[in-house]
């Protein structure tokens, strides 16, 4: 061991210095497996042009250029140039969207990067696992993922799961003893390996290899790259896009055939114009960019959630958050502040009350009834707090005038109480030297340490702390004054009654006991936790978070039912739950009661009870399954290794970021950076807002695209009624291919993205959760989309008819003027539609100017369209002519009809919904 430390030039107690760690990071590199070579930017850019329809457009541009060379009817090949420019611009926009989505996802990975506990400059620090270097001293415990290959220096019944590396299915016991001779990976008991998991115990080790030099790194070439995550929402949208594309292709083929049959189409150029039109219509109508936009919106939304301390590990969780109607939360640290403070110590001679709050070791001690704490009571107090201080792995530190606890807050509170009683760490360390530990487990609900006693070298002392009811069952005596006396049944009942009293005061209780053992070599295991001498009860409080109380009220207002699941005493749980507003009936079901319930009885129980106490991870799993069988969408928090199955089973597994283990975080969909219940509710709000925004831009894109298709389809179908065929020779249609492509580019891009980042609506938490299994596009949305498409087509064709001679409305303009008016009207229809698309029910005038990005996108679209109408070069490219103020006003007036008609339909929808609500009530 000393040779390893010397070779790595490090110290087992002090670790590396900060400067040395930075130097080694430069020399050895980051502790990461080498990723696959990134796809070059130029290949990503070229990938934007691999779609079949885009390739057809490029071929069309090439053929158009060849025809221009043959006919030379204009100074430049304007059509070919316009198509090429639009395809190129579409490619640039697609590339930028993809790049932004990739950057957002990369940022999320960075946010959720693993951390590790190391000793540097003599202090315990938490750093990113990627910054670990050879020579670092790392501390690992149950639930941690080993951050690098390391040689063990100290172990306490340490076991690791190495199946991912060696294939060994059972956990491997580890120790710090040297291994002689050649040994394979599975036989190196004094080593822990990167990527494996600690299943039991804890240890201290020195890092020997990082990154690609680890055992995992050496076989990294055999590891397959992780598949890019595709959420159910993206899959559904991809299916919708393909279905829409198929329908549009059929319509385009029918249109081409109709034009060729109805119109007097002669000559290669005319036939070619019809074919280009069909391809352009298909390109404009198919929302190929939907998956990229969804990824960008999801990722950007998730980054907003990260700023609110909710780190989403899987994008699919964002979709599920909007459906959550149950939040099953731990109590400690999530609903409460996680600043445990010992308030009461009850021993055989009575109660002692401790003052002060937080982790500062300051505060008075007083006995119930007044007077000094002397004699037997002082002796009992000292022994109880000495045992609690020794059976402890937390560290109390003062940093820049502020006291903090490194480790478990409950254990930290015990150390603070011991310091308040005048018990100093130096004196306790000098007398009691730790020889071993039996770590806490959620099944035993106990933790023990074994020490030598410098004042009585003929004995060893085992100190045990844990759940009072469990601990008391293992005690045969009670310490009173200066002696241990037998624990009678009546005294057991009195202790349990005192525990109930403390729990009724919303205090979390711990029992403390000890046992004297004969000196000499001894197996340190659960066997020491028998025939114990009971010392006393310790009552501590973790006050509820005020923000949690507000968040519970918000959750209930949003139709979400909060449930508390805790390992604490039932009375403590019910008091805290009542104070937070989770349950007013003070009813709590215990784990013992859950074990006795059948599946059917448990389903009935979870409908009625919102507080569960003294539960273990298996009980959590049963509760989640029962809720899901009852049709609930469950979000659940967890922090321990054994919580992983329940986190995986829950619809949304939420790991606590501060107290949670690496295993629980790996199993979770979301990690709370601050362990706060209010953050869960904030994440639900953000999740609902993100999903609502996705629906907004879907409503906008699909209705606009269907409006374009209907305009062209009915334009061809009603060609004789409008008398387009009499307006001039050749192929006469409402819009040219280049104009359709331009509308698609200008109106589908910026406004759609702007709708995707619409500010969170204050009313987003008012409606109940989205029904489980409801698709992103509902039947009501489809009705609205088709209605808007019909209004767009009717209004656009009406303007076209009014601009040309003949038809239903007599006009005087040329075909070029008529197509410009049609072009402008359809563009403005889509801009008015962007205001509509923000809700299916709420008026567009509610929060009209809240989204500045949307108004900027509308202004940009108008500016670019004006350029196409007035700039001579663009006039030639897009076959437009200048419009006067009256023309613009006519186009705007007709286009605004989509706003007013949609407002009318929303009024009707709200009225019908109100009538239904009154009928139901």
What does this 3D model show about the protein?
By secondary structure, the protein is an alpha+beta fold. It is 49% helix and 17% strand. The longest helix has 41 residues, at 677-717. The termini are far apart. Residues 221-229 and 916-921 have low confidence and may be disordered.
Helical content class: 40-55%
Total helix count? 33
Q: What is the molecular shape?
A: elongated
What is the overall pLDDT average?
Answer: 83
Approximate strand percentage: 15-25%
Structural class designation: alpha+beta
Main beta sheet strand tally, sense and closure: 10 strands, mixed
pLDDT < 50 stretches = 221-229, 916-921
Termini Cα gap: 75 Å
Backbone CA Rg: 36 Å
Work out the number of β strands. 27
Short description:
This protein is α+β, with helices and mostly antiparallel strands and 921 residues long.
List keywords for this structure.
ten-stranded mixed sheet, alpha+beta, disordered C terminus, 921 residues, eight-stranded mixed sheet
Secondary-structure blueprint of this entry?
Blueprint: H1 2-8, H2 18-28, H3 41-46, H4 52-71, H5 78-111, E1 115-120, E2 123-128, E3 137-141, E4 149-161, H6 163-166, E5 172-173, E6 191-192, E7 197-209, H7 215-218, H8 232-262, H9 268-285, H10 290-307, E8 310-312, H11 316-321, E9 326-329, E10 341-347, E11 350-354, E12 365-367, H12 375-390, E13 395-399, E14 402-406, H13 409-420, H14 425-431, E15 432-438, E16 446-453, E17 459-466, H15 468-472, E18 475-480, E19 483-486, H16 489-504, E20 508-518, E21 532-541, H17 546-557, E22 561-565, H18 570-580, E23 589-590, H19 591-596, H20 599-608, E24 611-613, H21 617-629, E25 634-638, H22 644-649, E26 652-656, H23 662-667, E27 670-672, H24 677-717, H25 719-722, H26 737-748, H27 750-756, H28 779-803, H29 815-836, H30 852-870, H31 872-878, H32 885-895, H33 897-920
Parallel strand pairs: 9-22, 9-25, 18-21, 22-24, 23-24, 25-26, 26-27
Antiparallel strand pairs: 1-2, 1-3, 3-7, 4-5, 4-6, 4-7, 8-27, 10-11, 10-21, 11-12, 13-14, 15-16, 16-17, 17-20, 18-19, 20-21
Helix pairs in contact: 4-5, 4-9, 5-10, 5-26, 5-31, 8-9, 8-10, 8-24, 9-24, 9-26, 10-24, 12-13, 16-18, 17-24, 20-21, 24-27, 24-28, 24-29, 26-29, 27-30, 28-29, 28-32, 28-33, 29-30, 29-32, 29-33, 30-31
């Amino acid at each position: 061991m000393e040779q390893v430390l010397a070779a790595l030039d490090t110290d087992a107690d002090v670790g590396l210095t900060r400067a040395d760690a930075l130097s080694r990071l430069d020399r050895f590199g980051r502790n990461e497996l080498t990723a696959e070579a990134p796809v070059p930017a130029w290949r990503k850019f070229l990938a934007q042009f691999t779609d079949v329809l885009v390739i057809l457009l490029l071929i069309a541009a090439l053929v158009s250029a060849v025809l221009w060379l043959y006919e030379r009817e204009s100074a430049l090949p304007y059509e070919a140039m316009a198509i090429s420019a639009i395809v190129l611009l579409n490619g640039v926009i697609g590339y930028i969207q993809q790049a932004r989505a990739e950057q957002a996802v990369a940022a999320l990975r960075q946010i959720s990067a693993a951390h590790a506990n190391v000793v540097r400059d003599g202090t315990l620090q938490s750093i990113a696992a990627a910054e670990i270097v050879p020579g670092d001293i790392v501390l690992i415990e149950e639930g941690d993922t080993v951050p690098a290959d390391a040689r063990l220096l100290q172990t306490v019944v340490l076991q690791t799961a190495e199946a991912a590396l060696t294939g060994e299915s059972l956990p491997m016991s580890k120790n710090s003893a040297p291994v002689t001779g050649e040994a394979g990976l599975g036989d190196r008991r004094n080593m822990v390996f990167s990527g494996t998991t600690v299943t039991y115990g804890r240890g201290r080790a020195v890092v020997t290899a990082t990154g690609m030099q680890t055992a995992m790194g050496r076989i990294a070439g055999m590891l397959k790259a992780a598949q890019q995550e595709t959420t159910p929402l993206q899959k559904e949208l991809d299916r919708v896009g393909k279905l829409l594309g198929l329908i549009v292709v059929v319509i385009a083929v029918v249109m081409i055939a109709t034009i060729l049959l109805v119109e007097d189409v002669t000559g290669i150029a005319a036939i070619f114009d019809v074919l280009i039109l069909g391809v352009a219509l298909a390109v404009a109508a198919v929302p190929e960019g939907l998956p990229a936009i969804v990824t960008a919106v999801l990722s950007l939304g998730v980054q907003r959630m990260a700023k609110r301390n909710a780190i989403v590990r899987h994008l699919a969780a964002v979709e599920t958050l909007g459906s959550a109607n149950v939040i099953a939360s731990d109590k400690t640290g999530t609903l409460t502040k996680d600043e445990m403070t010992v308030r009461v110590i009850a021993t055989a001679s009575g109660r002692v009350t401790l003052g002060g709050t937080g982790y500062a070791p300051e505060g008075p001690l007083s006995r119930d009834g007044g007077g000094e704490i002397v004699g037997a009571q002082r002796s009992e107090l000292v022994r109880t707090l000495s045992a609690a201080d020794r059976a402890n792995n937390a560290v109390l530190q003062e940093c820049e005038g502020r006291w903090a606890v490194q480790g478990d807050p409950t254990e930290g509170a015990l150390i603070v109480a011991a310091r308040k009683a005048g018990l100093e760490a130096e004196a306790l360390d000098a007398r009691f030297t730790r020889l071993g530990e039996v770590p806490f487990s959620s099944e035993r609900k106990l933790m023990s340490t074994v020490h030598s006693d410098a004042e009585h070298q003929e004995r060893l002392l085992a100190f045990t702390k844990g759940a009072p009811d469990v601990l008391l069952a293992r005690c045969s005596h009670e310490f009173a004054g200066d002696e241990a006396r037998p624990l009678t049944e009546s005294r057991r009942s009195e202790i349990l009654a005192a525990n109930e009293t403390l729990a009724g005061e919303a205090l979390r209780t711990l029992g403390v006991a000890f046992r004297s053992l004969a000196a000499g070599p001894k197996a340190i295991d659960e066997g020491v936790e028998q025939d114990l001498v009971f010392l006393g009860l310790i009552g501590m409080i973790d006050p509820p978070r005020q923000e949690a109380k507000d968040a519970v009220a918000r959750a209930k207002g949003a139709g979400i039912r909060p449930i508390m699941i805790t390992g604490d005493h039932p009375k403590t749980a019910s008091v805290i739950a009542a104070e937070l507003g989770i349950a007013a009936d003070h009813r709590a079901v215990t784990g013992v009661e859950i074990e006795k319930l059948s599946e059917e009885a448990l389903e009935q129980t979870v409908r009625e009870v919102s507080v569960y106490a003294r539960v273990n991870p298996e009980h959590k799993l049963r509760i989640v399954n029962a809720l899901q069988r009852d049709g609930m969408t469950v979000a659940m928090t967890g922090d321990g290794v054994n919580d992983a199955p329940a986190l995986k089973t829950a619809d949304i597994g939420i790991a606590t970021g501060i107290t949670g283990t690496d295993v629980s975080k790996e199993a979770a969909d979301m990690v709370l950076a601050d362990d706060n219940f209010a953050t869960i509710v904030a994440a639900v709000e953000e999740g609902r807002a993100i999903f609502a925004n996705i629906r907004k831009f879907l409503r906008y894109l699909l209705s606009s695209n269907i409006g374009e298709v209907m305009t062209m389809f009915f334009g061809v179908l009603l060609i004789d009624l409008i008398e387009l065929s009499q307006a001039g020779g050749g192929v006469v249609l409402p819009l040219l291919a280049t104009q359709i492509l331009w509308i698609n580019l200008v109106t589908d891009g910026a406004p759609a993205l702007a709708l995707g980042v619409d500010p969170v609506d204050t009313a987003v938490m008012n409606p109940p959760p989205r029904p489980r299994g409801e698709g992103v596009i509902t039947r009501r949305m489809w009705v609205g989309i088709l209605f808007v498409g019909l209004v767009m087509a009717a209004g656009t064709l009406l303007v076209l008819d009014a601009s040309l001679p003949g038809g239903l409305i007599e006009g005087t303009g040329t075909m070029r003027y008529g197509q410009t008016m049609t072009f402008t009207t359809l563009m403005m229809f889509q801009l008015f539609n962007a205001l509509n698309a923000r809700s299916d029910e709420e008026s567009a005038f509610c929060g009209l100017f809240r989204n500045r990005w949307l108004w900027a996108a509308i202004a940009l679209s108008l500016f670019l369209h004006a350029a196409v109408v007035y700039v001579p070069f663009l006039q030639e490219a897009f076959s437009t002519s200048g419009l006067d103020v009256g023309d613009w006003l006519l186009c705007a007036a007709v286009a605004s009809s989509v706003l007013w008609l949609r407002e009318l339909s929303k009024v009707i929808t709200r009225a019908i919904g109100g009538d239904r609500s009154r009928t139901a009530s």
